[in-house]
Design brief:
Distance between the termini: 88 Å
Structural class: mainly beta
Mean pLDDT: 89
Low-confidence stretches: 1-35
Radius of gyration: 30 Å
Shape: elongated
CATH class of the largest domain: Mainly Beta
Number of domains: 2
CATH architecture of the largest domain: Sandwich
Number of strands: 21
CATH topology of the largest domain: Jelly Rolls
Length: 302
């Protein structure tokens, strides 16, 4: 037997001993884990938010609940949902209302202007406790348009015509309205463009003060939202904010305008809606007419 063969035998014996000891250690660890009883969770069944505001939950689109139990964040969940919780006895439960920021499915966010729901529950694993969260607008919220964007009162949010066609403008109608009256813009091949601008609103321009826009819309064609900013005088800086697609019935959206205001650094802003009959690559209209309807236009900030 050569020296190399002897060394190989010794190495193999050493490896077998190490494998035996590691295997024995693993068996002891598994046995120890089996002796420990697994913690049984309680369950929280969280219902969709109720909203103590005009129109209730039907006028909102709260899609998620951001859940905290005893100060620990457990995740954001599409409502309704049932969540396992490793807690027992008296427990603090907090649920924040969440929305799709800018209408994007992959960007859920806590909506800062609606209050969180807090309660104390006596959790008893493995039982399920029901949670019916309730929310409302925070008392600190400022509404620059003072609720006049629902178009249902004698005093309504006013718009002015901003396109070159003096025969086209918006109208208020109850036909097909979301609730009460809604703003309607209609175009056709003879009058293919409408652009309107709202009254001015003073808005903060710091990242620390978020500014959002809520609105309901119903459209059979795309349309554009822009911000028109000014600081005294008549000069306005236009920023394109969001291109809306056509819908199947009424939809609700929450738009975060903060970054546009921080970039624009203006004192006053108008909301501008532009409806233009779409054309194809050859310049031909792809439809003979189109309608865009708006309702419950709300600017919000603290």
């Amino acid at each position: 037997m050569t020296m190399n063969d002897e060394m190989t035998i010794q190495i193999n014996r050493h490896m077998k001993k190490r494998t035996f000891y590691f295997g024995l250690l693993a068996m002891l660890l598994v046995a120890g884990c089996k002796d420990e009883s697994e913690q049984i969770p309680a369950y929280l069944k969280i219902e969709p938010f109720s909203v103590n505001e005009s129109g209730g939950a039907a006028w909102q689109k709260i899609t998620e609940g951001w859940l905290y139990v005893n100060g620990e964040f457990l995740g954001a969940y599409t409502l309704p949902t049932t969540v396992p919780v490793l807690a027992a006895g008296e427990s603090e439960v907090i649920v924040f209302p969440g929305v799709k920021e800018n209408g994007i499915r992959l960007t859920p966010n806590i909506y800062p202007f609606l209050t969180r729901y807090e309660t104390t529950l006596n959790l008893a694993p493995p039982a399920t406790a029901a949670v019916q969260p309730v929310t409302a607008y925070s008392p600190s919220v400022i509404f620059p348009f003072n609720g006049r964007g629902d178009f249902d009162d004698a005093s309504t949010l006013q718009f002015e015509n901003r396109d070159s066609d003096t025969t086209t403008t918006y109208s208020l109608t109850s036909m097909g309205a979301f609730a009460g009256q809604s703003l309607r813009m209609q175009v056709d091949t003879a009058h293919p463009l409408i652009q309107i601008a709202s009254e001015k609103a003073e808005l903060p321009a710091t990242a620390a003060q978020e500014v959002w826009l809520e609105l309901h819309y119903n459209a059979d064609m795309p349309f554009l939202l822009s911000l028109l900013g000014s600081t005294g005088g008549s000069n306005e800086i236009a920023q394109s904010v969001y291109l809306f697609n056509e819908t199947e019935g009424w939809n609700k959206i929450y738009l975060n305008l903060t970054e546009f205001l921080v970039v624009g650094l203006q004192e006053e802003y108008r909301l501008s809606f532009r409806v233009s009959l779409p054309r194809n690559e050859q310049g031909k209209y792809t439809q003979n007419d189109g309608t865009v309807m708006l309702d419950n236009i709300r600017l919000l900030h603290f």
